[in-house]
Amino acid sequence: MIAEPPVSAPLRVSGKLFRLGDSGSVCFIKAVTFGPFPLGVFPGGEVRIELERIKDELGANAVRFFEPPPIHWLNDCADLGLLAFITISWSQHIDFLNQRNIRRDTEIRVKEIVGRYRGHPAVAAFYIGNEIESSLVRYLGPRRVVRFLESLIDLGRVKNPHVLFSYANYPTTEFLIPENQDFLAFNVYLEDRDTFSRYLDRLQSLAGNRPVLISEFGVDSKKFGPGAQAEQLCWHIEEGCKAGIAGTTIFSWSDQWSRGGETITGWDFGLTDRAGRSKEALHQVASKWQLIQKPFDGVSLEAKPRFSIVICTYKGAAPIAGALHSMTRLDYPDYEIIVVNDGNDDKVRDLVQPMDDVRHVGVPHGGLSNARNIGARIATGDIIVYTDDDCLVDPDWLNWLALAFSSPDRPDCVGGPNIPPPALNVEQACVIAAPGAPSHVLIADRIAEHVPGCNLAVKKLAFDAIGGFDIQFRTAGDDVDFCWRLLEAGYKIGFHGGAFVWHLRRSSFRAYLRQQKGYGRAEAMLKTVHKEKFSAFGGAIWKGFVYDGPPLSFSRSSEIIYHGEFGCEPYQLIYPDFRRGYSSIFTHAAYILPLVILIPFGLINPWIGLIPVFGLYFTLSTLLKTAFQADIQREFDSLWTRLALARIVLAQGFLRSAERTIRSGLNQRPIGFIKGIFMTIFPKRSGLPGNSLTMKFWNDYEIGRETLLKGIKNRHSPDENGQIDIKLSRGLFFNADLITVTEYHEKSGCLTRARIVFNFKIMTFLVGMVAILLVGDLISNPIWIPCGYLGLAMLEWVFFAFYLTHLVGSAARRVGLKLLKK
Fold first, then answer.
1. What is the pLDDT of residues 263-308, one digit of tens each?
2. Measured between alpha carbons, how far apart are the two ends of the chain, in Å?
3. Backbone dihedral angles phi then psi of residue 400, each to the nearest 5 degrees
4. Which of 20, 375, 601, 636 has the least C-beta neighbours within 10 A?
5. How far apart are CA 639 and CA 627, in angstroms?
6. What is the distance between the alpha carbons of residues 670 and 674, in angstroms, rounded to a whole number?
7. What are the pLDDT digits (tens) for 104-130?
8. CA 162 to the chain's CA centroid
9. How many Å apart are CA 315 and CA 310, to the nearest integer?
10. Strand partners, 341
11. What is the pLDDT of residue 580?
């Protein structure tokens, strides 16, 4: 029987923060890892004693288990008020995707473990994996691995829908970001304070609208000494709070630690030594954690400038009440609130004027930019902060903005995320998942190119220097023009992931599409002022990356990942692939309308009919990909919801582009359009995907892939970005590349898998398509030309297959690897 615990509800996500389910109070996760321990350590009731020490001496509120714990451990956690984060271990160190039995066993294990703890009040979250080795991920393919992790999360949610799920990642595979995880979890071991701080900002960017939790951070007291361990653990807490992350996990509670059944003696990461005595780090961390209930509690502001919050509203009496109520809870000493009532609406005036701490200014209707300029003129603060009447602010919102302004980058303008609150119905859920919402654009993790007007703070000196907002922008586009002019004048725009606001999205499809048409009109106006910043087909050209809410996952996009030579770089970089922006062509009015016009002509001539068939295929595939990879709120997610999302994505792209094109035309000749379509269909790097040959090598002496690759590298060049291991050959019709991975088994056994990947060149594909089209009429069409070309391509493939397998096999034999037969 489980006693009624202090923690009677699971943890939940609230924007970039965690909250306790029942109380709703913000909960900064202060966790420590517990186990696995060598056999015989902490027998019987001693586990309860250690958990009491974690709660009382350390001041932690959570424990991370690397293995599913016994129920009585969780009962003790619940009784003590400790949240449990449980890691589900499985055969993630071997080729788990291509072996059906391993996939099946993993799925069964996830369902069994999650189901075992269903309803337990201590269980806050499950990690469905931990640090899948980077070369294995690269060998299997990042997209495939992400999708498998997402499937495991879905299986877990079926068994226990009331807890949180994540994957414990690490920087070497930072591109593995499951779309359906509830928060971003990373194991980060960085010994330099500034590097750690900047990497936390990167994690905030990768997380999108989700919280960031450090799932492991530790310092080896054997290597650095007890004093240095305490110092580094303390500054990691301070930097985590400054970055606005939602919590951290210290590795580990004890120096007593085992892996694979063997006791680890080479390092001492524990807060207690092998005899159970407290180290200096335990007391130092406890003193830090004692003061922290929410992230900003661990931050000390150097300066607290006066803020003037300006809310411009046009007939917005309904939403502005909630906005003003949220500002009554702001935890900041020096600010004023100004409501500019554009149009002098009576309902807004009657609502705002009785509020003693809010200044009401009624003005004739002149548009959004004019209202914002009026608010700035009467503001008394050093910094003007703009938000919308449909935004709710976090109590520490101004604190985070003040912290960003005092950062070493010394920005003149600062913004933060705008996060949609949970949807109340299917239409709202679709609108939240649809593209086109106000988004920030980041050049670096702390430097922005654009921040939306719903969460924009600017120094009054910089505001006055560029002349404020351009009053021709009456409903939208004003913030884009403002940010571009700030940058052109030499000012800096900063960004902080903790300075978020809740921004209500449109409540219906009709309202959403009306908003998108307005954005199209605003873009047409922007093109007249900033023509060089728009592409041939009308979309804005950004130097930075547009963050539209969901995390930067490999399942959503086609970022280029830097792996380093042989994929061994420990900290990865993700370069946005700007070609993915061309996919908006397929919902562009100038693309769809000509195809629709050609459909009747296709009834007369079947060859003409192929054009709209193939053209609309790309539109349909774009819509389905967008809809089925979107992050839709769980309770409203269904097949019909995603089909409805595909429908409004089509309408959004068509209406917004049509409005923009009608008012301003295309920037360039149609050749730019054709180039964009070509770049979207055909990958830029290596042509089209082809097939592959696989080989397996075994040895008993811990000889891995690096030894094999060094033997081949002397004759072939490695890939400069580490997307592959070695470029084996560049032929007329194919390119051949080598990718390897090593699995480490028991007793020094190593299994190295090698895959030779053949990629079609674009011309080979195009000629093949011509052959297919001509095969229906052998007499009037010279099909022998493309067939001869394909025949030569086949001969080249056979030659390469024989030569390259012999090359890899010979290199393996030279270094002592034995070829295994399939």
1. 888 889 999 999 889 999 999 999 999 999 999 999 988 889 999 9
2. 53
3. -65, -40
4. 601
5. 10
6. 6
7. 999 999 999 999 999 899 999 999 999
8. 23
9. 16
10. 313, 362
11. 45
> What's the pLDDT band for 683 if we cut at 50, 70, 90?
very low
Pairing of strands 750-760, 734-744: antiparallel
C-alpha 62/C-alpha 152 separation (Å) is 24
- The average pLDDT across 391-395 equals 93
Single-letter residue type at 257: W
Virtual CA dihedral for 613, 617, 620, 624, nearest 10 degrees?
150
Give the pLDDT confidence of 446-484 residue by residue, as tens digits: 889 999 999 999 999 999 999 999 999 888 889 999 999
The secondary structure of residue 434, as a DSSP letter, is: S
How big is the CA angle at 584 (ends 579 and 587), to the nearest 5 degrees?
150
Structure tokens at 506: 């449109």
CA distances (Å), 246 to each of 193, 237, 477, in order? 19, 11, 33
CA distance 592 to 576: 27
The more confident residue out of 629 and 645 is: 645
The span from the CA of 239 to the CA of 299, in Å, is 9
Q: What is the pLDDT of residues 740-774, one digit of tens each?
A: 888 887 777 888 888 888 876 666 655 655 555 55
How many angstroms separate the CA atoms of 122 and 84, rounded?
Answer: 6
Phi-psi region of 210 (alpha: psi -120 to 50; beta: other; left: phi over 0): beta
Q: Which of 132, 129, 134 is nearest to 705 (CA)?
A: 134
Q: What is the DSSP letter of 635?
A: G
* Cβ(732)–Cβ(796) below 8 Å: yes
d(CA 421, CA 14): 9
Cα–Cα dist 588/537, whole Å: 8
Report yes or no: 26 and 253 within 8 Å, Cβ to Cβ: no
CA separation for the pair 266, 188 (Å, rounded): 20
CA distances from 633 to 20, 253, 426 (A): 20, 36, 9
Query: Cis (ω within 30 of 0) for the bond into 252?
Result: yes
Determine the Cα–Cα distance for residues 226 and 320; give it in Å rounded to an integer. Answer: 54
Q: Which two tokens mark 103?
A: 């996939």
Q: Where do the DSSP E strands lie in 266-375?
A: 307-313, 335-342, 358-363
Average pLDDT, the chain: 84
Cα angle at 449 between 445 and 450, to 5 degrees?
105
HEC-encoded secondary structure of 546-603:
EECCCCCCCCCCCCEEECCHHHCCCCCEEECCHHHHHHHHHHCHHHHHHHHHHHHHHH
In this prediction the pTM is 0.84
Of 507, 404, 508, give the one whose Cα is nearest residue 451: 404
Nearest to 794 by CA among 760, 755, 756: 760
CB-based burial label for 206 (10 Å; 0-12, 13-18, 19+): buried
Q: How do residues 494-548 score in pLDDT, each as one tens digit? A: 999 999 999 998 888 999 999 999 988 888 888 888 877 776 656 677 776 776 6
Token code pair at residue 608: 């003409």
Would you call 549 exposed, middle or buried from its count of C-beta atoms within 10 A (0-12, 13-18, 19+)?
middle
Residue in the block written with tokens 């608010």: 375
Asked if omega into 452 is within 30° of 0 (cis), the reply is no
Q: How confident is the model at residue 427 (pLDDT cuts 50, 70, 90)?
A: very high
**Cα-Cα-Cα-Cα dihedral sign, residues 175, 176, 181, 182:** negative
pLDDT confidence bin for 56, thresholds 50/70/90: very high
Cβ neighbour number for residue 197 with a 10 Å cutoff: 18
